[in-house]
Amino acid sequence: TFVGREAELALLLAGSAEAPRFVTAFIHGPGGIGKSRLLNTVLDANEGERPALRLDCRDVEPTPRGLLRSVATLIGASAELDAVVDTLSATDRPVIVGLDTYEVFGLLDAWVRQVFVPALPQGAVLMIAGRDPPGAGWLTAPGWASLVREVHLGPLSDEHSFECLRSRGVVADDAVRIADCARGHPLALEPAAGAFNAMPDN
């Protein structure tokens, strides 16, 4: 049921390829616009090709120790930076780390950029999804500009809104009417389609 976002998906898949074209990607936009779905689509596309770690930052203590502990739990390492990096380095292919709901990591952002990402093994990629765009340090600190990609998500186009509704059983004029109300926002399109299918005569 994933529709649209072809350019964004192509960019992120290029970054998660064997020879990644960047080190960190920021997927950002308002709540419900599809950031988590896009992030998970990229991680799913790499299943079987590269190890992918998924963390929702709401479930992680927003401290260096908290992030290391959560990553260590996923990979079976002790919660120390060197131990985490050594375990990740021992994998056959470089890891992709996905951090969702990153806006809650505001106070940890500088540590992620200055310590965590530089410590990751060569070829590893960090993919971040959150409401906020990358902080200035990601784009202006020496050496970082070429290593970061920013993916801003806006509303779906009319074409993709119709495709989303059709995939949920809404057709023709009804899809046009719902799309006009939802204005391309996935969080509005999906419940509206569900409500229409439950009461199609209303």
Radius of gyration: 19 Å
What oligomeric state is this?
single chain
- Tell how many strands the DSSP assignment holds: 5
**Main beta sheet:** 5 strands, parallel
Structure explained in plain terms:
By secondary structure, this protein is α/β, with parallel strands linked by helices. The protein is built from nine helices and five strands. Helix 5 links the parallel strand 3 and strand 4 (125-130). Helix 7 packs across helix 8. The longest helix has 13 residues, at 186-198. The two termini are 25 Å apart.
Any key phrases for this structure?
202 residues; alpha/beta; 5-stranded parallel β-sheet; 5 strands
In short:
This protein has 202 residues and is of the alpha/beta class. 45% of the residues lie in helices and 13% in strands.
